Structures are given as structure tokens and as C-alpha cells.
Amino acid sequence: MTQETSLSHETNSKLTHLRSLLRDCGSALVAYSGGVDSSLVMAVAHEQLGEKALACIGVSPSYPAREMRDAVKLAELLGVPYRLVNTEEYLDANYAANPNNRCYFCKSELHNRLKGLLLAEGWGVVLDGANTSDLGDHRPGMSAARERGVRSPLIEASISKPEVRAIAQHLGLPVWDKPAMACLSSRVPHGTAITPELLRQIEAAEDVLVELGFPQFRVRHHNEIARIELPAEDFGKAIQQHNEIVAGVKNAGYRFVALDLAGFKSGSLNGAGNGTMIPLMEAVGD
User: Fold this and answer.
1) What is the pLDDT of residues 179-236, one digit of tens each?
2) What is the pTM of this model?
3) pLDDT digits (tens, 9 = 90+) for 130-169
């Protein structure tokens, strides 16, 4: 656990409000991924509700196994009851077609499962980790959550992403500075079909970067090309370790491996331009 830090008066007031909101839920299922947002909701819900708060981890091919393991470790560290909830969004033709509102169908599947669990076992409410910084972004998954009665206590308490991190650090959560990690489907350009096999290929390529110690990255899928996004400060390390990166990513199934000189950018496939790429290796042959 990290050392607690002080909060500003305003942020501390928001934390007090968050605690009150969660206490008033009576009981709750928390849609929990292991990221800092849902981890904060999980931790405070457990603080206020004890065993009446259950962390629910959606498990599917789009969720990296390493992320699931880390999510479980944190729940166990905090003593929070958790449950793995298998989802099958990849069987939905609307999701598999990978339209620009793909997240709507993914979150619909997750929250349909959680709503079923809520009704079957008598839980009070389903909670997610959306915060006020998410409100200005293109997030069709939030619409799916709202349609199914999911509440976002961080938004209700007017807590932004920087405040999420500040509160998480204040409470000693070790993930307070964890980089954002979107689902694996976000690595695939819209219109390219999503399959479990493709997601496993991307996951295997990203696991190479994890093993080499890169904290923040994306491997974007472009047919035979793996386009690696890293923060600019990690470019030198990537060039130094290019042999290991190329070998591992090729072993995952890619023919070409490229480093995007535009650097890391969350949601870059939603934009029109993706920067300039330099090859970390040229494929042998024609």
C-alpha cells in the first residue's frame, strides 16, 4: 500500500459525498476492471458496505489476462469479495462487426449479465467507475450502462480523473498512478472484424512489452503490421530492445513491427491520422 497523502478541502468534501452516496446504496455490485476508477469505487464501496459490496470482474477475450490477474490481486489485498463474470460479446454480430459504437454492444452484454445477477440475488444497484472527465468523450458504453440503470457515483460526486488519482493515493491504493488500459478491441480499426483469435494475437504482442518493462503502450493491429505506440521517452529503450520486441511480436503472428513516431495516444484509432511509423524490422521476402 502507498503512503496516504493529504487532499484539498474541495476534493476531501467530494470524498465525503462519495462515501455517503455509496453508504446509501445499501448493497452494490461494482463493475470492476482493476483500473484506478473502478478500483476507487470498489474500495470505498467496501469501506462503507463491507460484504454488501461485490466486485464483479467481466472476463472475455477483450480483457487481457494480465489485467484480470492484477484486478484479482488488488481485490484480495483489500479483502473485497469478488466474482468473475464471463461475458460473450464476441458472439454478438453487432459487436463483432466493430462499428464505431462497438463499446455500446460490449457494455450492453456486461451490464445485462450484472443486471441479471442483481435481480437474481437481490443486490441494490450496479455501479461503474465513470468520472466527470469521461463526459466530454465519445463513450457509447456509458449509454448502455445508463439504459440498464447503472449508477456512476464518481460522476454523482463530481469527481474528475485527476481527483480520482488524488483520492486513490490518499487512501493508499497501489493503482493510484496506473496507466489507463482500454480493452483489446480498441487496438483494431473500426470495420475490421473482431474475433477471439485476433484479440489473443494482440494480447500476445502486448505481453512482450509487459515482459520488457514498458509501463504504457498500445499495439495497434493493421493486418500484417503491428503498430506500437509508446510515450516518446520510451523510444530509446524500444530501439535498444528492438530485437526482443521484433522477435516476440512476430512470434505473436505479425509480419512487420513498427514504432509510431507520433507516440502514445489513447483512442488514436478514433482519429483520422496515426502519425509516422518507422519499422523495427523489415520482413524477409517479397
Assistant:
1) 988 899 999 999 999 999 999 999 999 999 999 999 999 999 999 999 999 999 999 9
2) 0.90
3) 999 999 777 899 999 999 999 999 999 999 999 999 999 9
What cell numbers appear for 170 in the block?
A: 490518499
| Interatomic CA distance for residues 148 and 146, integer angstroms | 5
Domains and CATH numbers, the chain: 9-170 (3.40.50.620), 184-281 (3.30.300)
C-alpha cell at 114: 450484472
**Cβ atoms within 10 Å, residue 50:** 12
